[in-house]
Amino acid sequence: xxxxxxxxxxxxxxxxxxxxxxxxxxxxxxxxxxxxxxxxxxxxxxxxxxxxxxxxxxxxxxxxxxxxxxxxxxxxxxxxxxxxxxxxxxxxxxxxxxxxxxxxxxxxxxxxxxx
Amino acid sequence: xxxxxxxxxxxxxxxxxxxxxxxxxxxxxxxxxxxxxxxxxxxxxxxxxxxxxxxxxxxxxxxxxxxxxxxxxxxxxxxxxxxxxxxxxxxxxxxxxxxxxxxxxxxxxxxxxxxxxxxxxxxxxxxxxxxxxxxxxxxxxxxxxxxxxxxxxxxxxxxxxxxxxxxxxxxxxxxxxxxxxxxxxxxxxxxxxxxxxxxxxxxxxxxxxxxxxxxxxxxxxxxxxxxxxxxxxxxxxxxxxxxxxxxxxxxxxxxxxxxxxxxxxxxxxxxxxxxxxxxxxxxxxxxxxxxxxxxxxxxxxxxxxxxxxxxxxxxxxxxxxxxxxxxxxxxxxxxxxxxxxxxxxxxxxxxxxxxxxxxxxxxxxxxxxxxxxxxxxxxxxxxxxxxxxxxxxxxxxxxxxxxxxxxxxxxxxxxxxxxxxxxxxxxxxxxxxxxxxxxxxxxxxxxxxxxxxxxxxxxxxxxxxxxxxxxxxxxxxxxxxxxxxxxxxxxxxxxxxxxxxxxxxxxxxxxxxxxxxxxxxxxxxxxxxxxxxxxxxxxxxxxxxxxxxxxxxxxxxxxxxxxxxxxxxxxxxxxxxxxxxxxxxxxx
Lengths: 115, 588
What we know:
The complex is a heterodimer.
Chain A: H1 2-18, E1 26-32, H2 37-53, E2 58-64, H3 69-75, E3 82-87, E4 92-95, H4 101-108
Parallel strand pairs in A: 1-2
Antiparallel strand pairs in A: 1-3, 3-4
Chain B: E1 12-13, H1 20-23, E2 28-29, E3 33-38, H2 44-57, E4 63-67, H3 72-79, H4 86-92, E5 94-98, E6 105-107, H5 114-127, E7 131-135, H6 137-141, H7 147-164, E8 167-173, H8 183-192, E9 195-204, E10 207-217, E11 226-232, E12 235-238, E13 254-255, H9 260-265, E14 270-271, E15 275-280, H10 286-299, E16 304-309, H11 313-321, H12 328-333, E17 336-341, H13 348-362, E18 366-370, H14 381-397, E19 401-407, H15 415-418, E20 428-437, E21 440-450, E22 460-465, E23 468-473, E24 475-477, E25 480-482, H16 484-562, H17 567-587
Parallel strand pairs in B: 3-8, 3-9, 4-5, 4-7, 7-8, 15-19, 15-20, 16-17, 16-18, 18-19
Antiparallel strand pairs in B: 1-2, 9-10, 10-11, 11-12, 13-14, 20-21, 21-22, 22-23, 24-25
Helix pairs in contact in B: 7-8, 13-14, 16-17
């Protein structure tokens, strides 16, 4: 599945970034519903945000609710797409296709690293 | 996306909610969606939850409850008031999904229900769910920013429900008269679903009254109008008019009222499973009469339920004890069940539910409600009236012989006729009243009506003493009824007059007897006289004959002696002598 592959790639990239010294790694989980338009948009948007604003390091896990409904249920997911910031605290929950970049950043407590 | 192939006649599933299945003529549409809308606190969620509980409980149909609005813990706490055994059902047949978005949720861009439906689908397959409830969908929809997005998600939901063959209930809040910021979309929701039930909660004279109304049912008819609903120990109940022509066996068995005098007036007692209304001003012994009925029922070994309003069972028993009615032993033996309800701030509907539950529990053959008029104290009179009627019909359906008291305004004895208006449905109506005459207040009892019975139409005086009740005849004098001291005076006066009358007639009788005796005596004397005279006459006749014989012989002898022919002279002398003799006898 495309998402599976992408998830793998994202994780690898995060690992590479981890090699750098003394950086806060943002751990996130994005719940999507298969190839639904909003879910596809959300993946693109979060990846863009990560590339642009989380250069120091991030870990993004993408969970397809259609494939792992039990897990999503246990995690308390309601609507898709929805993004959960796992660490560092404070956590955050953002629902929607993440089209509002500044809103997403504000909710995640990330100050823009663009100099 | 719409699968609009012509469907066969609509199939229905019972909700198990008492009354609702009647007005919906069989429950909710199977594999379809029902929209439940109403203001806060109207009972929408409870309606949905109870339907789920009933399906999961008695029919073993698993269901899923998606709670957008209320926390699951709160739902469990609310449901604990009813005998639903929610935790037990949750183990295998009910699944609750906590679907409140935490306030910290941030919305960024568009989203959809695709993920949630995927999760629910997995859960449905896992547990074989046939029902799903989306409670408070308005909360979810309010997150969707545009009406277009809302509509899109509603369609998604509808299609998913159709595909999954789920019978679903969607609840949504509306403000007041259905006006809402998103009224347009809820209007759309109403078009989309097959059945719409509206809930309403209004204050009627400070008492909240809940009602529901089916405003749409595709492919089915339903009872139109608003129906009151309330909560009892088994959950929600809807007051449906019920079947109107229930076969009611008319019993000819007589049941004692526990009051011999009254039984006699009623021609032998009350009919079994009849309802008797006792109306009266405060203190006219309504409760005492109810107590007598209760005691006699218990003594006959008939289970009895005594419902008292505003006065505790303890107090009622103590008061009845003072007039010689003992209910404690029947209480202990379990024959008698007493229930007291406070009527302030309780919806009349709720009383009906509690009484219904008690009837189901205790299964009484006889029942007392004292006083029923108390339920009209709170809330609107119209609803109290409806409750009164339904209660009496219910008792009749259960074949319970009932005595119901009702308080009326002392100054207006006809008040009952206008207040609860149950006197028209009740089989018997006994009116107790005070008559104030000659500075005294006395109790009077009248049987106003008694169906199927020859009853006394006389007013009787009701006398209350520490040995119980008694009925006394009343005197009517010049169109007025006399009671109490006046009755006593009248009674005494009547007595004296009677004595006098008796004395007078005695004198007269004796006079007549004397006259009669006198006459008979005189008759006897005359008779004797007559006999004596007859005897005298006889004697005289015999003397005459003897005299005539002797004189004739003498003449013959004389003639023979004289030797002459003196026949003619002798004859003339004889006639003269005869006349003389008769005259002499008469004079004697």
